[in-house]
């Protein structure tokens, strides 16, 4: 896709002769391969893509996937076996002076293979790639919206399936099944299904703990849909809610609302984080919001940018972020509410839209 290649080259030094995107095997697949080709199916292990400053490109794909690859409007060479790629690299790269690589995704073995085939200087263009991929095209937003809709409907329906005595991993399995029943290709990432005190750990996954009365149940999951991903979190309370639990929940909800009020083109990401943090820090839960407010999402769950004090980004239309404030209290529990949004010309639109009033199950 020429506009996407242009997006990348617009952000690199002018004297780069080519950019090589080279996949290893799963999970070391550079999603930039899908960004540039627009392909939605196939694995493309050990396949490569070379991009040129004139916006042309070519791919080297295994014969196992030549049919899927044919859906991209990009010239391709078919590899009969793995040694073919070394010869192709040598033929195409040997006379170049400066080659861009995506150092965030290329394996070291892949790097050595490129290096052996050329005398060119290899330079990291990963910042340019992250920056280009952060500005989503309309087609990408549509796929993200579909992924968000699948997760949203599941977030609403899972509540009817959660019961006292159920194990955390059973809920995780249920979520996965429900998303696939609605057309997801898979989970966007490993589901977080936590309960009780486990909800206080933001990156807990799931375990054997059984749901008890009075528990928080925190579910953080997403759908993979045609290579694009959603990421949603809802927190429920089992049986009955204490005043402290209700206050935690409503504070997180207010913090998310404060963030939404700030989101528009031109604002710095960290200011949105701060707006949410100020709401939490003005309550008894001061200091209990312990992570960044959100991350960019697209072909990868963490697409390289974010709404965080550590990230320098000014919002532009087409950028897609999660907005996920939380409060975490050790040995008690945690609440997080997360939605995905796309920045528009005059504000933002929701990509997830599941109900989020406090639900006591
Ligand atoms: Mn997230």
Key attributes of the depicted protein:
361 residues; alpha+beta; Creatine Amidinohydrolase, Chain A, domain 1; Creatine Amidinohydrolase; 6-stranded mixed sheet; 3-stranded antiparallel sheet; 10 helices; 32% helix; binds manganese (II) ion
SSE layout and pairing:
Layout: H1 2-9, E1 18-22, H2 32-37, E2 48-51, E3 57-62, H3 66-69, E4 76-79, H4 83-93, E5 98-101, H5 108-116, E6 121-124, H6 126-134, H7 138-158, H8 168-181, E7 186-187, E8 192-195, E9 216-221, E10 223-225, E11 228-229, E12 232-237, H9 243-262, H10 269-281, E13 294-295, E14 306-307, E15 320-323, E16 326-329, E17 333-336, E18 339-344, E19 347-350
Bound molecules: manganese (II) ion (MN).
Please describe what this structure looks like.
- The chain has 361 residues and is an alpha+beta fold.
- It folds into 2 domains: 133 residues, Creatine Amidinohydrolase, Chain A, domain 1, CATH 3.40.350; 213 residues, Creatinase/methionine aminopeptidase superfamily (Creatine Amidinohydrolase).
- The chain is built from 10 helices and 19 strands.
- α7 packs across α8.
- It is elongated and about 70 Å long.
- Manganese (II) ion binds next to loops.
Number of strands: 19
Low-confidence parts lasting 5 or more residues at pLDDT below 50?
A: none
CATH architecture of the largest domain: Alpha-Beta Complex
Q: What structural category do the secondary elements indicate?
A: alpha+beta
Count of separate structural domains: 2
**Rg of Cα set:** 22 Å
What is the straight-line distance between the termini?
A: 48 Å
The spatial strand order of the largest sheet comes to 4-3-2-1-5-6
| Average predicted confidence as pLDDT | 96
Number of helices: 10
């Amino acid at each position: 896709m020429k506009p996407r290649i242009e997006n990348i080259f617009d952000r690199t030094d002018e004297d780069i002769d080519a950019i090589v995107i080279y996949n290893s095997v799963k999970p070391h697949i550079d999603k930039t391969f899908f960004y540039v080709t627009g392909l939605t199916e196939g694995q493309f292990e050990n396949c490569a893509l070379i991009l040129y400053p004139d916006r042309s490109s070519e791919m080297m794909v295994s014969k196992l996937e030549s049919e899927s690859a044919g859906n991209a409007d990009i010239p391709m060479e078919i590899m009969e076996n793995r040694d073919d790629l070394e010869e192709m690299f040598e033929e195409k790269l040997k006379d170049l002076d400066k080659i861009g690589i995506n150092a965030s995704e290329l394996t070291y073995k892949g790097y050595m293979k490129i290096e052996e085939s050329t005398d060119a200087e290899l330079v990291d263009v990963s910042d340019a790639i992250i920056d280009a991929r952060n500005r989503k095209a309309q087609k990408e937003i549509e796929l993200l919206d579909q992924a968000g809709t699948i997760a949203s409907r599941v977030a609403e329906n899972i509540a009817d399936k959660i019961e006292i005595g159920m194990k955390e991993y059973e809920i995780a399995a249920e979520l996965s099944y429900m998303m696939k029943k609605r057309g997801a290709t898979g989970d966007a990432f490993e589901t977080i299904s936590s309960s009780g005190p486990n909800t206080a750990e933001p990156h807990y996954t799931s375990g054997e703990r059984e749901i008890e009365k009075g528990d928080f149940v925190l579910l953080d999951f997403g759908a993979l849909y045609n290579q694009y991903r959603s990421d949603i979190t809802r927190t429920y309370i089992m049986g009955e809610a204490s005043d402290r639990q209700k206050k935690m929940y409503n504070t997180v909800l207010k913090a998310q609302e404060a963030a939404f009020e700030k989101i528009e083109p031109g604002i710095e990401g960290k200011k949105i984080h701060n707006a949410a943090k100020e709401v939490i820090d003005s309550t008894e839960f001061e200091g209990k919001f312990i992570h960044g407010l959100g991350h960019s999402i697209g072909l990868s769950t963490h697409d390289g940018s974010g709404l965080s004090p550590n990230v320098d980004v000014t919002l532009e239309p087409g950028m897609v972020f999660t907005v996920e404030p939380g409060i975490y209290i050790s040995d008690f529990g945690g609440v997080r509410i997360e939605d995905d949004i796309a920045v528009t010309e005059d504000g933002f639109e929701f990509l997830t839209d599941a109900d989020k009033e406090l639900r006591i199950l």
